[in-house]
Amino acid sequence: MEKKSEAALDQASSKGTLAHQIEGAYQRIGVTGAHRQIVLMILLGVFFDALEQNAVGITGPVLRESWGLGAGEIGFLNTMTFTATALGRVATGLIVDKYGRRNMLVINLIIFAGGSLLCAVALNYPILAAGRFIVGFGLGGEIAVAVIMMAEFFAAKHRGTAVGLINVTAAGLGNMLAPAFGILVFTLFDGPDKWRWVFGLLFIPALLVMFFRRYVPETPRFLASQGRLDEANMVITRLARGKLSGRIDDPEAYITAVPGPAVIESKGHWKDALRGRLLKRTVLLCVAVCMSYAAQISMLTLMPTILVSRGYALNTSLWFTLIMQSGSLIGAATAAFLASRLPRKKVLTAAAILGCAAGLSMAFLANDIVLVVLFGVLFNFSVIILNTTIWLFAPELYPTRTRGFGTSIILAAGSLSGGLFPLISGVIFDAAGLMGMFTTLAGLFIILGVVVQFPPETFGQPLEEDATEDEGAIYGH
User: Fold this and answer.
1) How far apart are CA 86 and CA 89, in angstroms?
2) Residue partners of 443: CB distance under 8 A and separation at least 6
3) How confident is the model over 342-363, as pLDDT tens digits?
4) 10 Å Cβ neighbour count for 126?
5) CA-to-CA distance for 42 and 92, rounded, in angstroms?
6) Does the pLDDT of residue 472 top 60, yes or no?
7) CA 164 – CA 47 distance, rounded (Å)
């Protein structure tokens, strides 16, 4: 029975469209040691990105003491980072669809590392703010490329889990371990300039990751979409044989179908994601990600302040917040697990319902600290499932020629929402307290749950390659 299935798969992949040939090749080779090496190298960069995103929060108290900065000035550093992150994602999306994923992976690391170094040696506040802007630009591009590459290196069976690992590493491990990184640095170094070591040490791992990423190849999907079939077959052969470096004299011909001439000549037109059937997908996912990021960053930003307003000491409030953040790690791991087992829209709908329930429970039932922490864990658990699933859903909605820009603009919308909505949540909290703020956040989950019903389901489907040949065959349009 297995031999019969394999024969049918071979026949389908050798005679099918470009999308089905690539999917068939990926299914045959499965997940190899080369895949694991690529995943490790990408996730190392993502992990240090997460530490860098938390750097302002870690260094904020020391900067206030040594430079006399106010809360507004420290908050502006985060605003610079989030704004640049959105810009970096859009710019990267435009570039990767024309010139490839691999080069931008390294370029964004260089930008991120350079910004970290500038922060470490900053002589005044304007230079530090400029460094944070540069860091944010590199961070935004890094995450966008990581999501796209992880989606394009795996078959449908493993794709969701691979992309989900990005948020397990970033929102889960990175955000949880960032305070421990700060404690370690401040234990080893002392004095008014000890904050510089936080940024300086984050520059070193970026260099190491940059070295390892020399061995990350361009994705076969991008190469094939450009008509570079020999190169695409070489990369798939390397994946199949678990050999990212060294000479290969006899690459196998996994792909023979050529994309339509219009696709090759377009070399990735950004307008494709903003017109026709793709425009609807872009708008819907932008609305969804804005809702989830607004809820997540509002919770992350304001929870310590809320607890302090209830009479808890700052350190105690931070510990309670850290416990609530454990829900993020569990949520990211859960989303990665469900990615290969349940359709995207079902996961998003269930998590939106759970998040709404957690928000309303926080608003009306959280009368003591045990319930606050419990509902906080549940809230973070739900919102990270949503974010992670949107991350893996987004690249599946676009053909290769515009996947980079489409995915990047969705992630950029999330960054802008995360940077701006906590200001609104703060005003609502001041005016209406905990009940008003979390009732508002619960409403965001309702909107998200509605809009995710309209994009096409992509679970278990091959990624689109050439829309002129695959459109309709894959999504029934």
Assistant:
1) 5
2) none
3) 999 999 999 999 999 999 999 9
4) 9
5) 16
6) no
7) 13
The two three-digit tokens of residue 172, written as one number = 């889960």
pLDDT of res. 1: 40
Distance of CA 281 to the CA centre of its chain: 18
CB-CB contact of 459 with 338 (8 Å): no
Confidence (pLDDT) at 16: 67
Residues 327, 381: contact at Cβ < 8 Å? Answer: yes
Tokens representing 74? 């420290």
Beta-carbon contacts of 415 under 8 Å, excluding residues fewer than 6 positions away, are 82, 85, 86, 89, 140, 293
CB 49 within 8 A of CB 139: yes
Beta strands in 314-415 (DSSP E): none
For 24, residues 6+ apart whose C-beta sits below 8 A from its C-beta are: 9, 10, 12, 13, 14, 16
Element (H, E) at 312: none
DSSP character at residue 219: P
* Alpha carbons 409 and 144: distance in angstroms, whole number: 9
- Per the CB < 8 A criterion, the answer to whether 407 and 383 are in contact is no
d(CA 150, CA 39): 7
Long-range CB pairs of 52-55 (<8 Å, 24+ gap) are 52/112, 52/116, 52/135, 52/139, 52/202, 53/81, 53/139, 53/174, 53/175, 53/178, 54/174, 54/175, 54/178, 54/179, 54/181, 54/182, 55/119, 55/135, 55/178, 55/198, 55/199, 55/202
| Complete DSSP assignment for 282-305 | HHHHHHHHHHHHHHHHHHHHHHHH
Asked if 59 contacts 195 with a C-beta cutoff of 8 angstroms, the reply is yes
Collapsing DSSP to helix, strand or coil, 386 comes out as helix
User: Which DSSP string corresponds to 91-105?
Assistant: HHHHHHHHH-SHHHH
Sign of CA dihedral 311, 314, 315, 319: positive
- Cβ neighbors of 231 (< 8 A, separation 6 or more) are 218, 223
Sign of CA dihedral 234, 239, 240, 243: positive
